[in-house]
Structures are given as structure tokens and as C-alpha cells.
Amino acid sequence: MARDSARKSRKELQFERKLSQRSGEKIGVKIGNFKLASPTMLASGILGISFELFPRIVECGAGAVVTKSIGLEPREGYSNPTIAAVEGGYLNAIGLANPGITFFKEELEVYERTAAKKVPLIISIFADSAAGFAQLAGELDPFTFLAIELNLSCPHVKNVGSEIGTDPNEASEIVREVKKRTSKPILAKMPAAITDVPEWARSVERSGADAIVAINTIRAMKIDIESRKPILSNKIGGLSGPAIRTVAIRCVYEIYETVRIPVIGVGGVSTPNDAIEFLLAGATAVQVGSSISDPCFLEIFRRINDGLLAYMKRFGFKEIKELIGAAHS
Ligand SMILES: Cc1cc2nc3c(=O)[nH]c(=O)nc-3n(C[C@H](O)[C@H](O)[C@H](O)COP(=O)(O)O)c2cc1C
User: Fold this and answer.
1) Which residue in 40, 142, 153, 235 has the fewest CB atoms around it within 10 Å?
2) 168-181 vs 197-206: helix crossing angle, rounded to 10
3) Is the pTM here over 0.85, yes or no?
4) SS3 category, 132
């Protein structure tokens, strides 16, 4: 079993960093106007907004880190239990717990002033209206970071039970309004419950999205047969992990067939082969979420990057872009 990088010597870590810089030439990718040294990212919501931890994730091979989704106001989220292990992954209903934009901006200011080395940071935001998303984007615009990811799976206020970004018109209005308030690239994260994926993808591309992230968790439920009650306090939660990978692969495949902007695949990535499958379906990069529960979680990015390089060598691919969408030809 690979050792946790926390226990590696500084020399070992420096050597690994050099290796990843070298491999970055081969597995580096471009999304919108920014470049990543590797096509792996930490998915939103997985390690919160831990500015102390983010540099270690990048040192371990991640091309970028995505923060937990930030909203206008602080939210405590739902009471426990908020997460349960189920067959093939996890069920979670955190309730968009977050410190709110004012506190987050204070943290960001400290980080910008004090961090020795900046991480390739993507900030995820959520709101229950296009105006809310636009306000958040405007408040973040003066800071230095790579891109804004729109969490379009926020519950709809008018339409209880649905997610705000499932309607392609609403999703594209959000992208349009956000673009008016920021010059940062916009990654539109697709809710899983889209029936017409090509229509949705076309709408957000037309409104100026720079990339599409697919997918968020799938609405699901587990009932405890002893208490005869749903396990989660919110009853319904979002399913993540390997159980949703085939759905995510299908979405990435359909999006790649429809639009020209890059797709970022997310859903059940834990091994190099999972990442390769996403790339062949058309993803330019992948995000890793639930697999971070692995005891050697920081090793996962390096394992995926090394596996990608080994696969490219085995089949004679010179650059990673030759792999992207190769399952379509
Ligand atoms: C505990 C937990 C919290 C999450 N929080 C967020 C979030 O704040 N914003 C968001 O866009 N997605 C959130 N997600 C969804 C993940 O970013 C990802 O889209 C999903 O889990 C599928 O990837 P995975 O199978 O690799 O976990 C969360 C997922 C989990 C498991």
C-alpha cells in the first residue's frame, strides 16, 4: 500500500514535485484561459475551504482544487446524520453548510496576503437566484484565483423539490448574469437530473460558460429498516461515488458530442482507469470527490497522474489531448 505523503521526507516530496512538473508537460491541460499541470482536481465540498490543506493537495498532484460552495449568507446546514455510506458510495445531505461570502472573503484576503505559494484555486458558489449568483461573482472578482464554478444544484425557492439549474433557460440566465459581473472563467456544474443533456449543454455554452462540469450527486434515499425511518435527517440526499460513474460517463459523452467548450468529468473517480474512461468519453479533466475517503487520500492524484502517463506510454499517445474524446471516433 502506498504511504501517506504526510510521512514522506522533504526530499521525497521535492523529487515527486519535480516529476509532476516534468509530467505536467505531457498531462497538462487547458480549460478556458487557464492551464493546469495535471487533469485531476479536488471536487467541491470534499475538503471544505481548508486553505492550509489545499497546497498539500496540489503538491500531491492535483491540477486544481475546488472549494466547498459558498453562498451569500452563513448556513449551518442540516442536523446529523448528514452522510451515510451506501453500496457503491455515499449518500449526503449537508444542506449547503458554509460560512457565507463575508467570512470567506476575509479568509481569502488572509490567504492572498500570507500564502507563500498560491494554489490553482477554483471557487464554487451557489445561490437561489441569478441575481444571487451574480452578486457572489462580483464580490469575488477582485481576488486572484483561476475560475468560478457554479453549483447549479441548489434547491429552487419557487419550485420546491427541484434544483435551480435543471431548467436550461434558468441555467443560461445564471451564466449570463454572472458573466456581467466577472471576467473570471465560468464553469457551469450540471445537476444530475437533466433529461435533455445536449439542450442544457448548448444553453450554457451559448450564454458564455467556459466549461461544463458533470455531474453533481444524484437524488437518492436509504431507509433504516429497524427504525423504519430514512437514514438522513433531511430524508433525501445526494448519491456519490462509483455507483454514479456510468451516469456521469454518459453525460460527459453526450456533452462532448454537443458543444465545443471543455467538459470536466466528476462522479466515482478513484483509479487511473476511471479517469482514462472519462477522458475517452470527452473530459479534459476529472474531479475526485468521494474517493478522498481513502486512507491514503492524498496519494490518489499522483496515482491517477502516473496511471495516465503509463497508459499513454502503453498505447503510444504523445500528448493527453490525443486521449480526450477518443471513444467518439
Ligand atoms: C460530502 C459531500 C459534499 C459535497 N458538497 C458539494 C458542494 O458544496 N458543492 C458542489 O457543487 N458539489 C458538492 N458535492 C458533490 C461533489 O463535488 C461531486 O460532484 C459528487 O460527489 C460526485 O463526485 P464523486 O463521486 O467523486 O464524489 C459534495 C459531495 C459530497 C460527497
Assistant:
1) 142
2) 20
3) yes
4) helix
Q: Which of 64, 21, 50, 51 is nearest to 115 (CA)?
A: 51
**Smallest CA separation from ligand 1 atom 5, residue:** 45
Q: Which residue, by CA, sits nearest to atom 26 of ligand 1?
A: 289
pLDDT (average), residues 317-327: 96
Distance 232 CA to ligand 1 centre (A): 16
Q: How far is the centre of ligand 1, averaged over its atoms, from the C-alpha of 298 (Å)?
A: 17
Distance in angstroms (rounded) separating the CA atoms of residues 71 and 45:
13
Domains annotated on the chain, with CATH? 27-76+95-219+239-324 (3.20.20.70)
Pocket lining for ligand 1, CB < 6 angstroms: 43-45, 68-69, 83, 90, 92, 94, 124, 151, 189, 216-217, 240-241, 244, 266-269, 288-291
3-state secondary structure of 307: helix
Atom in ligand 1 nearest the alpha carbon of residue 83? 1
Which ligand 1 atom lies nearest to the CA of residue 268?
A: 25
Cell numbers representing residue 255 in the block: 456533452
Has 296 been annotated as catalytic? no
Please state, as a whole number, how many other Cβ atoms lie within 10 Å of the Cβ of residue 233: 15
Is residue 127 a contact partner of residue 133, using CB atoms and an 8 Å limit? yes
Q: Which atom of ligand 1 is nearest to the CA of 287?
A: 26
Give dist(CA 94, CA 187) in Å, integer: 22
* Ligand 1 center from residue 182 Cα (angstroms): 24
Is there a contact between 308 and 276 (Cβ–Cβ < 8 Å)? yes
Give how far the C-alpha of residue 278 lies from the chain's centroid of Cα atoms, to the nearest Å. Answer: 14
Give the C-alpha separation, 136 to 123, whole Å.
10
